[in-house]
Write a structure and sequence with these properties.
Layout: E1 6-10, H1 13-35, E2 38-42, H2 49-58, E3 67-71, E4 73-75, H3 85-92, H4 114-128, E5 141-144, E6 169-174, E7 179-184, H5 186-189, E8 194-199, H6 205-212, E9 230-236
Parallel strand pairs: 1-9, 2-3, 2-5, 5-8, 8-9
Antiparallel strand pairs: 4-7, 6-7
The structure holds 6-phosphogluconic acid (6PG).
Length: 247
């Protein structure tokens, strides 16, 4: 259990994204050297977009053809919808790098029923990772963000998905946004070889304090405690405004 996350604080977002891209590249290279492939779960929202663009534009020697892309969560919207996490990654990275189409595993949000979309994505994981019953997939890298309320992926405080332990992927109704999301469950997040959070902006300061200072109730992002993997937090100075210890 990674009780002490590696916390890296950056004075500005440019240095944060440069370090995150370097970390991503090192893990991709190491995974390919060790296992012949690199499995990564991308996060959504706005924070990762500069990282995706930087990887596509400044890291041509990444093993793109041996990298396999998944999403730790997805909005239940068509793949070309402005809110789609798949569309975000496709426009900022996947369409700009030499990645074979069969290496990209998006959530089938064309399905009418979000539960069915979740089941299909779970089957995709089971097939790609050749999982035995009840076995968990181990991603080489799980990119994660955090909302101001401390949610991560689409595991929102108090939501049903947060309690699920016997599924890999579930549909989650998010009351505050009145939308359905498709999300990895906590056991999948905690099985990764590396969980890497990217958190920028003062709006995340209160949630970051709740996570890193173990302050108050355990928000979902604090529940990401990889079983045997590494836990990295890349945060900018603005997001550390509420941390108790001198930073
Ligand atoms: C999503 C993400 C979500 C995101 C946080 C932070 O689908 O929105 O997966 O967990 O990481 O909401 O979002 P921002 O990066 O936009 O602040």
């Amino acid at each position: 259990m990674a009780l002490h996350p590696q916390l890296r604080i950056f004075d500005d977002t440019a240095s944060l994204y440069a370090a995150a891209a370097t970390e991503y590249a090192a893990r991709a290279q190491a995974a390919v050297e060790k296992n012949g492939r690199f499995s990564v779960a991308l996060s959504g929202g706005s924070t990762p977009k500069p990282l995706y663009s930087m990887l596509a534009e400044k890291f041509p020697s990444l093993p793109w053809d041996k990298s396999y892309f998944f999403w730790s969560d997805e909005r239940f919207v068509p793949p070309d919808h402005p809110d789609s996490n798949y569309r975000l990654a496709r426009e900022s990275m996947l369409s700009k790098a030499p990645i074979p189409g069969e290496n990209i595993f998006r959530v089938q949000t064309e399905e009418k029923d979000p539960q069915r979309a979740a089941e299909l994505y779970e089957q995709t994981l089971q097939s790609f990772f050749r999982l035995k019953p009840r076995q968990l997939p181990r991603f080489d890298l799980m990119l994660l963000g955090m909302g101001p309320d401390g949610h991560t992926a689409s595991l929102f405080p108090g939501s049903a998905a947060l309690k699920v332990r016997d599924r890999l992927v579930v549909a989650n109704w998010v009351e505050k946004f009145q939308v359905n999301r498709i999300t990895f469950t906590l056991p999948v997040l905690n099985q990764a070889a590396c969980d890497m959070f990217l958190v920028v902006d003062k709006s995340k300061a209160s949630a970051l304090r709740q996570v890193l200072d173990q302050d108050g109730e355990a928000v979902p992002a604090r529940m990401v405690q990889p079983e045997t993997g590494e836990l990295l937090w890349f945060v900018d100075r603005a997001a550390t405004a509420d941390l108790a210890r001198a930073s």
